[in-house]
From TrEMBL:
<dbReference type="InterPro" id="IPR016160">
    <property type="entry name" value="Ald_DH_CS_CYS"/>
</dbReference>
<dbReference type="InterPro" id="IPR016161">
    <property type="entry name" value="Ald_DH/histidinol_DH"/>
</dbReference>
<dbReference type="InterPro" id="IPR016163">
    <property type="entry name" value="Ald_DH_C"/>
</dbReference>
<dbReference type="Pfam" id="PF00171">
    <property type="entry name" value="Aldedh"/>
</dbReference>
<protein>
    <recommendedName>
        <fullName>Succinate-semialdehyde dehydrogenase, mitochondrial</fullName>
        <ecNumber>1.2.1.24</ecNumber>
    </recommendedName>
</protein>
<dbReference type="InterPro" id="IPR015590">
    <property type="entry name" value="Aldehyde_DH_dom"/>
</dbReference>
<keyword id="KW-0560">Oxidoreductase</keyword>
<dbReference type="InterPro" id="IPR050740">
    <property type="entry name" value="Aldehyde_DH_Superfamily"/>
</dbReference>
<dbReference type="InterPro" id="IPR029510">
    <property type="entry name" value="Ald_DH_CS_GLU"/>
</dbReference>
<comment type="similarity">
    <text>Belongs to the aldehyde dehydrogenase family.</text>
</comment>
<feature type="active site">
    <location>
        <position position="175"/>
    </location>
</feature>
<feature type="domain" description="Aldehyde dehydrogenase">
    <location>
        <begin position="2"/>
        <end position="400"/>
    </location>
</feature>
<dbReference type="InterPro" id="IPR016162">
    <property type="entry name" value="Ald_DH_N"/>
</dbReference>
Length: 411
């Protein structure tokens, strides 16, 4: 992957639309998963367990779960594949990867590179699908040869796959939808918080499962934060073709994404919010381009408060107290990521423990790392990807007991 960095970057921009700079970063991130799990593979340890029965010896062996069905999304067409394939190969599993219909060529390129790298035929398999995606998913989840499914995508599809897997009791990892709160307390470094919020909200044009979806700003600094945040979005972003020099944001993935973004913006306006930056389609660039948008005066009754936007729209919600904002942040059925900015160490510990999410970023808007466990709680799914916890998702633990080992040595 490192040797073919430029070609993979070009494929991602062609398929996904993200600017070249973002695509380059993704290729590096994706390759890092292979490197990290290759280094973790020699550290797959079992345990020796003291037995309560005299004369017995007990130990455990970590074994590969078997053939794995991997279903990946379009928003990170390289990294979401390597984050699943890496640990599967490290523990000794073979994989069948269902490539996203919107971005199949990156998946096929990675499969070709696996072949060139010397991975035997039949170990890494990629299948493409579009109109027949439900049939492919049904086959992967019902075939008894496949012992594990790992899926990244929407909560609704995750629930369907879980139901389909029940017939053969497959091991499951589900990384599903999010609605990440991003909280800025009045004791925060406002400039740092603005930078963090920009990075979290507008990465990949807001088309990430961990991007800030609800930005809560304490009322004492609300106006200052809103002004600085809006200025950054207005002055530093340029929407365009991902191959164009200076483009910071590309198109959304398809017409459904544009329609949802438009609906959330118009809903907020209708209910009293104010669009201070953007708020319109950029049809002169193409059908799927939308302006990076900032909206102030958000309230909990607006669609953006309860639905994942998955687009370049930042809604700023005012709040008064810590207790209030934690309740607002947790008032959702999903719990993937959450972020907050504060310089009070006691508050940092307290709020991190009370947020109902699987991942917390404190004074940062970027939390992804191959060495860190990635995953959520509630209806954001279960299981972890990346890290030593992620490698365990592709293993089963076998216990071995040997009796008759307690006889004394004979002279």
């Amino acid at each position: 992957m490192v040797e073919n960095h430029d070609d993979l970057t070009t494929l991602i921009t062609l398929e996904n639309g993200k600017p070249l700079a973002d695509a380059k970063g993704e290729v590096t991130y994706a390759a890092n998963f292979f490197e990290w799990f290759s280094e973790e593979a020699p550290r797959i340890y079992g345990d020796t367990i003291p037995s309560s029965v005299p004369g017995n010896r007990v130990w455990t062996i970590k074994e590969p779960v078997g053939v794995c069905g991997l279903i990946t999304p379009w928003n990170f067409p390289a990294a979401m594949i390597t984050r699943k394939v890496g640990p599967a190969l490290a523990v000794g599993c073979t994989v069948v990867c269902k490539a996203p219909g919107e971005t199949p060529f990156t998946a096929l390129a990675i499969a070709e590179l696996a072949h060139r790298a010397g991975i035997p035929p039949g170990v890494v398999n990629v299948i493409t699908a579009l109109d027949n995606t439900p049939e492919v998913g049904s086959t992967l989840t019902s075939d008894p040869v496949i012992r594990k499914i790992s899926f990244t995508g929407s909560t609704a599809v995750g629930k369907l796959l879980m139901k389909q897997c029940s017939g053969t009791l497959k091991k499951l990892s589900l990384e599903l939808g999010g609605n990440a709160p991003f909280i800025v307390f009045d004791d925060a470094d406002v400039d740092a918080a603005v930078t963090g919020a920009i990075a979290s909200k507008f990465r990949s044009s807001g088309q990430t499962c961990v991007c800030a979806n609800r930005i809560y700003v304490q009322r004492g600094i609300y106006d200052e934060f809103s002004q600085k945040f809006a200025e950054q979005v207005k002055n530093n972003f340029r929407v365009g073709n991902g191959f164009e020099e200076g483009a910071t944001h590309g198109p959304l993935i398809h017409h459904r994404a544009i329609e949802k973004v438009e609906q959330h913006v118009r809903d907020a306006e209708k209910k009293g919010a104010k669009v201070v930056v953007g708020g319109h389609r950029l049809e002169s660039l193409g059908p799927n381009f939308y302006e990076p948008t900032v909206i102030t005066g958000m309230t909990p009754d607006m669609a953006m408060a309860s639905e994942e936007t998955f687009g370049p729209v930042a809604g700023l919600f005012p709040f008064d107290t810590e207790e209030e904002v934690v309740k607002l942040a947790n008032a959702t059925q999903v719990g993937l990521a959450g972020y907050f900015f504060s310089r009070d160490i006691h508050r940092c510990v307290r709020v991190a423990e009370h947020l109902e999410v699987g991942m917390v970023g404190i004074n940062t808007g970027l939390i992804s790392d191959p060495a860190s466990p990635f995953g959520g709680v509630k209806e954001s799914g279960f299981g972890r990807e990346g890290s030593l916890y992620g490698i365990g998702e592709y293993q089963v633990t076998k216990m071995v007991t040997v009796g008759g080992m307690g006889k004394p040595l004979q002279k």
